[in-house]
Each structure stands twice: as structure tokens, then as C-alpha cells.
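Q: Convert this sequence to C-alpha cells.
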Amino acid sequence: MKQQYLILNYPIVNGSSALVSSKSWLSFAWVIHFFIAAFVLTSPATIAADITEQLHHPINKSALQLLRKQADTLVQNGEQQSTSGSLEQAIKSWLNALEIYHSIGDLKAQGLIYDLLAKSYLQLDRNKEAEDALRRRLAIASDLHDFQAQIFAWNNIGTLLLQKGESANSIPAFAQALEIARHVQNLEGQGLSLSNLGLAFARLGDYYKAIKFYEDALVFRNQTSNFSGEANTFNNLGDAYLAVGNYQGTIGAYGTALQIAKSNSDRLNELRAIDGLVAAHTSRGRYKRALDLLQQRLALARQLQNQQEELKSFQSYAQLYEQLKNYTTARNFYERAITLARRLEDSKQELFLLDKLAQMMRKAASEKIPN
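A:
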């Protein structure tokens, strides 16, 4: 059972960080030098008058605007670097921006930076830093009384705990998010939090409780325009029904997820729904329907030019034909999957598939079925 990742935040560094660009530091040093010189050359009476005036007018507004512009540019640079796959460079840009936002006291911008950092740390499997960023994001959201940000931050923290295998520990985080969402009557937050609670209980093996949470979540998800979230919850519901052997419930949930995903060009949930339907139909011996669905899956993967999903399609074909004891066709699909894994330089997957093929060939030989 998979989780849609929501928003997806490195600790605040002090003003002496070497990550600050030389241009930013020179600008900041110039401003400090200017104020020191002004302080030394100005009389106490004048200083007192200036302080009174500064209570009503920002100090050196143009300098603050310059710093903010530099930070905004660093954020944009980081987004471009992230899009091109240079996550480490993106993180450096965002940390530099964070330093500046911190120096000018822009809490809202700092919160957004922590969201970006958390997402990147998760992609790099740097879970400790991701959790630190998420908790800092939560603290800022609390300071700003930003309830929606608090809802998503608690859900992200819970999701991270799930990814770390701490399913039981994730439940209080999701429950806290749900409590806040109910307090402010946030429909999207309630749907998301309930769906995540279902996922947590499913991971613990309590599928019937998970089903109840998923069904409650859909009441809210149906009232928002988050079609991807709705399809995701239906897919999770299908996983739970499949686990308890409820065939009709499984087909209904995956079928609805597939319909919603197709209507909204949500390819990730479309592929998930197809995989679920293949598993459900195969479990009931409806192999022709399963093969038809796999044909759709392979066509979609090729349409998306996603070789990783194409590899998964070949593997699913191989496993289904192996179950049908059609070892010749199964071997063909295993070999195609192995070739693609090698092309993608996915050595772990390649070794796994080679092992699966070897096991199947030994089974075929023991059953004296031609290869």
C-alpha cells in the first residue's frame, strides 16, 4: 500500500555559515558597516530622534528589498536545479536562501523553504534531515497560527515515520493532524489525515480498521477537488479489501480509482489501479482479464516513455505466465525485463530477476515441461 506524498522541509544555520554566497555577505557587511559609521558620527540626541522615527519606518528598506530579492533568486535557482535532478545543488541554494530569510525575519518564506528541503532530503533518503526540516516547518506554522500548514506538516511527519517502518509511532502524528483539521473544519485536511490513519493501521495488519478509516476519508475527499488524493485513497482501500479477501470490494475500489485517475490524467494512480486489478483477477483465476489489463499497462508505460514502468510490466507478464505454467512465454518476458534492467543500470533489479528466472527454470525442469 503506497502513500501519495503531499507537499512536500535542514536546520537553521547561524549567520557565520560558509554557505552564504560572497555576494550576499558583501552586501550584508556593507549595510552593517554603514550603520556602524552612522552611529559613531551621529550625536546622541540625533540617534534618539532616529530611533523614534525607525519605530514607524523600516530601517534601510532598499537594503532589505535587495536581500529578499537575492533570497528569492536562490529559491528559483534551487527549483530549476531540483527539476534537472541536481538535488544536492538545489539544497545548497535553498539553505543560502534560508539564511537570508532568517536574517530578515521572514517566517513564512522560511516555512516554504523547509517544505522544499524536506522533499529533497526524502528523495535522497536522508530521513533524519528530512524529519528535522519537517519539525521546524511545524514550529513555524504554529508560530504563524497557520492551521493548514500544521495539518500538512503533521501528515508529512507521520508519512516519514511510516517510511521508516515506525507505523505505530505515525498514528499520533496523523491523529494530531486530524484534530486540527476538524477544529478548523478543513475538508481536505480531514480526508488526508483519515486516509493516512487507514494506511498506518493497514501497515500494522489491522485491515478492517484501515477500511473504516479509508471509507470515512472518502466522504471528505469526495467534497474537494483533489482527484489525485481521492484516487489514492480508493487504491489504498482496494489494497485493504484484497488483503481480507473481499473480491467485490477490491474490484469496486480499484475500478473507481482507475476511472478517476484516467479522467484526470493521473498516471501514477492509473498504474496502481491496474496493478491492483491484475492481482484481484488473478486471485480468482480470471487470467484473460488480467492479461488484457497488463496489455493496457504496458501501452501506458510506453506512452509515458517510462522504462521503469515498462520493466514492471514485463515482470508482471512473466509472473502471470509462470503461474499459468507457460514457462516458455514467461522466460521470454523475464529475459526482456532483465535486458531492460541492465540498460537502466539497475543491478539490484537485474539480480532479482535473474534469480526468479533461475528458480522458474528449475521448477520447469522438475515438472518435465519443455522450456
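The chain has three domains: 1-33+58-126, 145-224, 285-371.
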